[in-house]
């Protein structure tokens, strides 16, 4: 497979910067969209990130979601486009902005593959997701519909649970660092989640881009060793710190009762935890080998949950 030109949109974000790194590491000519909003205000970290991309060999491409022509011109520079605009309500949510990008890709007519901002649960399988969290999947489905209606070649990358959000807090809702004393167990704690290191997600996503096997398909990142229940995750942490945590079980009713005092963004997050830890949406996920990233790319040594948790000790 030859090396292509890849445009990354949302490149300074949590997933975006990893996609830029992975694209460069895999030898692609890498372009990163630079929005004019960067010039306003004092988001000095964003500027520093963009400059660091340039130093590593990426090209910065000025373009704006508010300027269709600039988007078309940016897209025309490359073969493939990956978008990683925000989609975590508690932080920022701009998934539907991609409709403008899809319009530009359609008009440019040269893009061989588009990977939209997904990198979570497969939106197509979340029709029964709890409200208001379902909005996250509904918006991603709106984008998918636009991509498919425009006839744009695509790959949807479903990464299940991004590790820092889920493993960091041992799958406790609202926590991103592991406890050393007690832990809330959601329900019986036995339903399985699928936890994936964010750098591995980026590596796999870039791998799919020139792969004919992944054309117009959904690819799942579901590393076999990382399919674990909350209790199994907690056990791994206990082994690492050499201490058993006090377990407090939280019933579904009590968990849901806490929803009303939360703001909208937090309610969206709570819904996702409900779907995974109380309803077992991922426990029932069936994936064929031909659509699972670690099977498609056995040369990638993915990060196991033990390895990931070690950084918090
Ligand atoms: N399943 C999971 O566990 C999980 C967890 C986290 C994220 N995700 C998914 O991963 C994807 C990326 O999320 P992320 O957390 O990496 O995003 P993020 O860091 O919050 O934001 C990514 C980028 O989006 C762009 N952006 C943000 N607000 C914008 C606005 N108002 N207008 C235009 N652009 C804006 C910015 O890009 P530039 O400034 O560089 O242009 C920003 O750096 C989303 O689809 C999300 O749903 C899944």
TrEMBL record:
Gene3D superfamilies for the chain: NAD(P)-binding Rossmann-like Domain (3.40.50.720), UDP-galactose 4-epimerase, domain 1 (3.90.25.10)
EC number: 1.23.1.1, 1.23.1.2
Top-level taxon: Eukaryota
UniProt entry tagged with the keyword Zinc: no
Entry keyword Oxidoreductase: yes
GO BP annotation list: (+)-pinoresinol catabolic process; (-)-secoisolariciresinol biosynthetic process
Broadest EC class assigned to this enzyme: oxidoreductase
Entry keywords, A to Z: NADP, Oxidoreductase
GO molecular-function terms, A-Z: lariciresinol reductase activity; pinoresinol reductase activity
Domain NmrA-like intervals: 3-309
Subunit details: Dimer.
PANTHER family reported in the protein's UniProt record: NMRA-LIKE DOMAIN-CONTAINING PROTEIN, PINORESINOL REDUCTASE-RELATED
Family: Belongs to the NmrA-type oxidoreductase family. Isoflavone reductase subfamily.
Protein name: (+)-lariciresinol reductase
Native source species: Olea europaea subsp. europaea
